[in-house]
Design goal:
39% helix, Dna Ligase, domain 1, 3 domains
Length: 416
Amino acid sequence: MFSIIDCNNFYVSCERVFRPDLEHQPVLVTGNNDGCIIARSNEVKALGIAMGAPLHTIRPLIQRHQIAVFSANYALYGDMSQRVMRVIEEQTSGALEIYSIDEAFVKLNTSPAQLEPQAAHLRSIVRQQTGIPVSIGIAATKTLAKLANTCAKKLPTGVISLSDDHSIDELLRVMPVDEVWGIGAKRAEWLIGQGIRTAYQLKCADPVWIQRHLTAPAARIVWELRGVSCLPLDADPAPKKEICTSRAFGKAIQSEQELAEAVAFYTSRAAEKLHKQGGLASLITVFLHTNPFQPDLPQYAAHCKVPLAEPTGNAAELIAAAKRGLRQCYKQGYFYHKAGVILSQITSETMAQGTLFPLARDSRDERLQAVVDIINRTYGRNTMYLAACGTQRTWQMKQGRRSPRYTTSWDELLKV
């Protein structure tokens, strides 16, 4: 049996761990530059505030209902996620597939009668050791487990096990087809046009017909709804083939120097991700553009691909290549809103293709990069960085309402 452990309103729950006075109070979290809502407590959902709503459009509601507003604290959320996943891994004997920052699949190897008690115990341990509430859905396939989890969130127990055909069919009959895991908006629109409006109707559809008109993955969803497992647990996900790092700036940028600092910073972050998966990149793409939501200003967008002479993971080499790409993209006279880099043509460090005349690299560069990575893992990100990334970083995104980084910064530890 598969179980999916899903943290409830994860970003909001992380804030409440360190602000227990906000329990049962309306709380929302805004995204980059405090623009749109990316997380809502149940109290905010009850007020009808939609996910993705621009913050400035709901200011009267915020004042009227005294809603607590936080800027996204990604350092805190990432660390709390690691803590939750570590507890789950310690408490379960099966393999763990981390599906997202707040979700994980686990395969439970126990008797049907013990499934819900085991899940309830796991839920209690996670709450006790991390403060994060979770919901757990259990079923014979991943797709059914996701649907069970959707219902578990509405129950005080927070746990549902779908183990018999009757209960499964009852759930599928009332579940809209667009809420089935893997059925996106376009697929749902087509299915509804064919008269398939519920998950039960999708279960009863002919998989061959679904594959012919949609895709093979869509046909696998039909089999999953029938209780036939087609999606195994992926405890060791494949390395990424591309790594992208980008952000909208906290203010519009005109200066090429500031753009170069931002691009260097994003490249350094992308290099960290590359090192983490033990990869080397052979191509870096730099892109930038103005703000499309300000049509009264001149608009411009560009990108440049910079091939690397040899696959590399060295941050200094990648930054140098990114700067060459930026010089080709940059034009004066525009207010730039966003920039970023993409590392691609990624290979493993142990399988990278060499060249007939390899570059003469100083072995000290590799040792220096390794030391920088160790220091940043030990003492926190950006403890040590290349000067090209800048020191002031006035272009960084706005986080005017960010809570302290309680678990990752010595200067922001909780005071009691």
